[in-house]
Amino acid sequence: MIVAIDGPAASGKGTLAKRVAVHYGLPHLDTGLLYRAVARDALAQGIDLDDAGTAAKVASGLQVATLDDPALRTVGAGEAASRVARHPAVRTALLAYQRSFANRADGAVLDGRDIGTVICPDADVKLFVNASAEVRAMRRFLELTGRGIAVSEASVLADIRARDERDLTRGSAPLVQAPDAVLLETSNLDIDAAFRAAIDLIEAAMSCAGRAG
Ligand code: C5P
What we know:
- It is a single chain.
- By secondary structure, the chain is an alpha/beta fold.
- The chain has a single domain (about 1-200), classed as Rossmann fold (3-Layer(aba) Sandwich), CATH 3.40.50.
- It is about 55% helix and about 10% strand.
- Helix 4 runs parallel beside helix 8.
- It binds cytidine-5'-monophosphate.
- The site of cytidine-5'-monophosphate (C5P) has 14 residues, from helix 2, helix 4 and helix 8.
């Protein structure tokens, strides 16, 4: 079973994807880490993030063993990721790895922005996780301050809005809900309730597919 989970920054899709993967015993790929790692490597090599050709070369040479680097979890890394993610050549360079991860024998859970639309258009289940910008900013603010990082609520909200703008309006694989994805609106749900809702939606989609097959 392939589960595609897309949504904007700080929508909770990553936490949800992790829990869904554990629940079904499937491997999980947080595809945002790929873009974050490309930006990290580009910056380390002194490459301009707006230089598509050079960024794509960095993406082609990406070592996926480095995706557990804690430096990829910062606000700055997310911001830099959204700059390299605009380049079609970077996206193309990362496509094969994501597709081969998804096409493992037992399936997989992938989360990102274009999983249901580009990476796995034939996924068995597609969820689009969303919440208002204010709710997402508050969650991110609590997460960052909980980790001892000093930020203001206003700056976190501004970052979320800037990232939304970049991800929604870019020409290549913009963030959009796939026509066959189910919307999971989590503004009024805590993570446990969102997880239960996700499992219900996945079970419903699988039983529908079973009946159709
Ligand atoms: O999900 P995360 O916030 O880690 O993603 C960082 C950035 O990487 C996003 O803002 C987006 O620009 C880009 N991204 C993408 N496609 C994906 C995953 C992430 O363009 N599948």
